[in-house]
Structure to design on (254 residues):
């Protein structure tokens, strides 16, 4: 009788310890009614998921249902529990392709054949389509005579399209009439107002005989008028330096 009591006590004490060493294996399935086998022993059916308690360890899991391709995997179950995602594929269908490791970046611009650099590395010309791995990138679009376009992007799980608008790189200039050529009265005032134009547009005055403005790179017609004097010349202005149009016998670049 004492032996039976001791055995019952041992079993009562051992049961909580045994339960503590077991962990949950959760089979997350896309269909209901699939049979789940653990080490070739039926553990239950999905509803559409199934959870079973097992001692920690490595197990061979099979999931099957009539009309579907069987699923099989080796799973290592930890004390914290393990979740096994299962997608059963109908017979006659192929498995979906694995997720793409690269995503499409499309770059267009208002300038054809603009240069595209990705993280400062030349990568092609617009319009450009290129695959990028997930990550953060700086995309720069540039073209001669245009200001650069730059945008930072985060490639994660979908295609990205960039439409770059490049603006003309303006060239600044000054347009001046030396004091020696100015017609002044006894009080030092201009006898006749001085006016200046570029490509037919009147320039903003920065002084009685000085003007300033900005234009896109290229050829431009400058004109000066004061009283009965009219001077006109064409100059090619390009970025990279300061330009001064000076009046003399004619108009010249200084």
């Amino acid at each position: 009788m004492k032996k039976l009591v001791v055995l019952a006590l041992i079993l009562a004490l051992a049961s909580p310890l045994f339960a503590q060493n077991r962990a949950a294996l959760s089979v997350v399935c896309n269909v209901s009614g699939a049979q789940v086998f653990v080490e070739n022993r039926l553990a239950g059916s999905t509803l559409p998921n199934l959870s079973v308690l097992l001692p920690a360890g490595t197990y061979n899991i099979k999931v099957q249902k009539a009309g579907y391709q069987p699923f099989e995997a080796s799973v290592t179950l930890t004390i914290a529990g393990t979740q096994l995602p299962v997608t059963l594929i109908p017979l006659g269908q192929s498995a979906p392709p694995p997720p793409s490791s690269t995503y499409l970046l499309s770059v267009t611009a208002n300038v054809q054949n603009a240069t595209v650099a990705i993280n400062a590395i030349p990568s092609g010309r617009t319009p450009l389509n290129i695959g990028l791995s997930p990550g953060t990138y700086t995309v720069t679009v540039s073209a001669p005579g245009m200001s650069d376009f730059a945008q930072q992007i985060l490639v994660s799980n979908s295609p990205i399209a960039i439409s770059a608008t490049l603006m003309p790189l303006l060239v600044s200039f000054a347009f001046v009439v030396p004091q020696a050529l100015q017609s002044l009265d006894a009080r030092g005032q201009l006898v006749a107002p001085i006016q200046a134009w570029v490509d037919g547009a009147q320039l903003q005055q920065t002084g009685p005989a000085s003007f300033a403005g900005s234009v896109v790179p290229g050829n431009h017609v400058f004109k000066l008028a004061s009283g009965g004097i009219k001077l006109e010349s064409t100059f090619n202005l390009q970025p990279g330096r300061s330009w001064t149009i000076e009046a003399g016998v004619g108009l010249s670049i200084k």
The chain has three domains: 2-86, 103-164, 171-253. The chain has a mean pLDDT of 83.
